Amino acid sequence: MRTIKIDEASKKRLLEDLLKRSPNNYDSYTEAVNAVIADVKKQGDKAVFAYTKQFDQVELDATNIRVTKEEIEEAYDLVEQELIDVIRKALINIKNYHEKQRQNSWFDSQPNGIILGQKVTPLEKVGVYVPGGKAVYPSSVLMNIMPAKVAGVSKIIMTTPPGKDGKVNPNTLVAANEAGADEIYKVGGAQAIAALAFGTECIPKVDKIVGPGNIYVALAKKAVFGYVSIDSVAGPSEILVIADETANPRFVAADLLSQAEHDELASAVLVTTSEELAKAVSKEVEDFVAVLSRKEILEKSLDNYGYILLVKDLEEAIDVANEIASEHLEIVTKDPFTVMTKIKNAGAIFLGEYSSEPLGDYFAGPNHVLPTNGTAKFFSPLGVDDFMKKSSIISYSKEALEPIHKDIIKFAEAEQLTAHANSIKVRFES
Amino acid sequence: MRTIKIDEASKKRLLEDLLKRSPNNYDSYTEAVNAVIADVKKQGDKAVFAYTKQFDQVELDATNIRVTKEEIEEAYDLVEQELIDVIRKALINIKNYHEKQRQNSWFDSQPNGIILGQKVTPLEKVGVYVPGGKAVYPSSVLMNIMPAKVAGVSKIIMTTPPGKDGKVNPNTLVAANEAGADEIYKVGGAQAIAALAFGTECIPKVDKIVGPGNIYVALAKKAVFGYVSIDSVAGPSEILVIADETANPRFVAADLLSQAEHDELASAVLVTTSEELAKAVSKEVEDFVAVLSRKEILEKSLDNYGYILLVKDLEEAIDVANEIASEHLEIVTKDPFTVMTKIKNAGAIFLGEYSSEPLGDYFAGPNHVLPTNGTAKFFSPLGVDDFMKKSSIISYSKEALEPIHKDIIKFAEAEQLTAHANSIKVRFES
């Protein structure tokens, strides 16, 4: 891995480099995606069937588009019992963590008869997109479904592209069933997003669509935003490790690689105060890359977006971490908690040398769907809040309105909204 | 107002009718907006100055783009003291309500050395767009700035188009200053949104952009979503009143008109169990329209999107209200609280006959920036949450990781992510 001493110029270059990976830069696919969306919106299932034939080489119709109970049972026979057990253990942790996120409705009554409040209600129907293809991630199925489940969403509708045999990957099906998907449809790509956003004869319209996907899926989600809600548009994965001389270089190297292996756009950055650690990590990375199965991806992503940054002190490390706003941030220093309190921007923060990033991907409980590519400056991990929405509550008595009614009339008249003023006036006309 | 007995067919037509007002249907402007954005992204201030000259007929440069302290002081001289006093009173209520929304960071420690948590951090920089032109709404300035202020946003950057004299409306300036805007720039339209999203020499890049605007502003916000966060794309205003025979028809009529006056796309719907009330409200509406100053707008919006719907009972009224998911919902029935508990979808809910909608627009405290056009099914009122984001916290001890480390390895290997598995393995190699 290349090692650089950080300065303003190198930091700027690095930030620009990382942001190049943004899915927002793939506008050239927009037209194709918009055509698919328009088609599905207009023709419903007919278009969904045609695109599935074109892109997945599978003949769908109203009788086989939805995964049946039998197909789910069949999947259980195909998945190792040991994996099913792990999925169940992980789900308990994921459920427990997300239950702590739940916000309650609240009301506040004042003696003069004013009641103000906030009502929190789950979304009714949610669509969860699950990618197909070579890389199958049942953990991602759990992470997308469980917060909706904890929120109290009535209907969780999953879509995922079928394989050429017309079947859905059994690991995906078992994970979906364990997490609590209510309906599963064998549709992928932009056509799935369009079907969820507008509804078709077979697939119900939802209120919100979540879940990762390729560039077509990401652009389709962006296009239907407003008609429905969406989660944030996910970019390539990334890890940033802040480490001092107390860190174990072998652990740090292994953790950097755990994200670098995702794909060629993945980024792994070590920010360290210790030149010695930098050297040791660099050596360990080389040794691991030589033996790990995803060697080619690792080499490319490290070449493109792997950095070891030397900083003069932890304050500078914290500044760099806040500027990069990494999806995953590990803090492996003498006192990780103190460092953490100064972190403003990160998707998930892992503290200490036994909190390796994959622990969060699979097991600890917090969501692994995290803001990428600098968006941790303004987006949050997927959570229960994403599946609930609020309504304000306002209740005034006559006695409470009377002393302020002229203020409201004044304000409305200043905005030339005379019917607004009138609605207050009529209540106090004699 | 037209009165119809509701049935499935009429309900479907009505819903389709209302959704036609969606800002998502104005795709024809997209190209023009995208050109402005690309230009500002590439050329910065130069493009901002050129578009301001083109659209606002104002010559901007680096010396006059930002509103000065002197201009703010001048604005105070131009605004009635009485209005300033009302703004200050309203701000106290708005601040108090939003302070109740603030979520805290939390941590949860388990005896085996597991610490999980959620850190809540304010966004650093937020852009607030304020429309210019004929309709000036200082209340909207308060509602957009105050939740960001309560969240603890460090820098609130406002942009608003200048008048032909190169000045910003004094009511807008006073409201912005009272609410706590840190910097104000005289830029409007898609060029303002682009400047906030990407930064220019004069205007800082922000993390999130909020605030209403015309179709160009709405489309520009949608286009920059992902580079920055945005609030929901606002549509035309609307009110739905659920009323039974106990309601005062004069109050109900006045409240319907308070939203119908906004613009020709505004919608006002009464859903009532009482034919007598329907008739009385219809009559009162006619009488009010004849004397109110915004008669022409009122007539058009009522013609297009005004309805009195007769339902057989309150349950049906609640169903209709949940399907329409109105921005504003008034419940004027014998027992409004019981009805409210059954409401799933609404931006703000007003209970009882003295809680008229304009009370919420100006004074009660809850935000008046609300989801419109059916989006209350998945969006929330603007609030403190919109200006804060979360990071998950994960800290495991060696003792906590040991008993589950094989589970994580199993899961990672099932996903063929061998570097993920490796990062757990290295911690327990002998």
What are the key terms here?
homodimer, 430 residues, alpha/beta, Rossmann fold, six-stranded parallel beta sheet, 16% strand, Hstdl_DH (chains A, B), Ald_DH/histidinol_DH (chains A, B)
The quaternary structure here is homodimer
How much is the average pLDDT of chain A?
93
Largest sheet of chain A: 6 strands, parallel
Number of domains of chain A: 3
Low-confidence stretches of chain A: none
What is the CATH topology descriptor of the largest domain in chain A?
Rossmann fold
What is the CATH superfamily of the largest domain in chain A?
Answer: Nitrogenase molybdenum iron protein domain
Q: What's the N-to-C terminus distance of chain A?
A: 81 Å
Overall 3D geometry of chain A? globular
Give the largest chain-chain interface (CB within 8 Å).
Answer: A-B, 126 and 125 residues
- In what order do the strands lie side by side in the largest sheet of chain A? 1-11-10-9-12-13
Structural class of chain A: alpha/beta
Alpha plus pi helix count of chain A: 18
Q: Give the second-level CATH assignment, the architecture of the largest domain in chain A.
A: 3-Layer(aba) Sandwich
Cofactor (chains A, B): Zn(2+)
Binding site for NAD(+) (chains A, B): 129, 191, 214
InterPro entries (chains A, B): Ald_DH/histidinol_DH, Histidinol_DH_CS, Histidinol_DH_monofunct, Hstdl_DH
Enzyme class (chains A, B): oxidoreductase
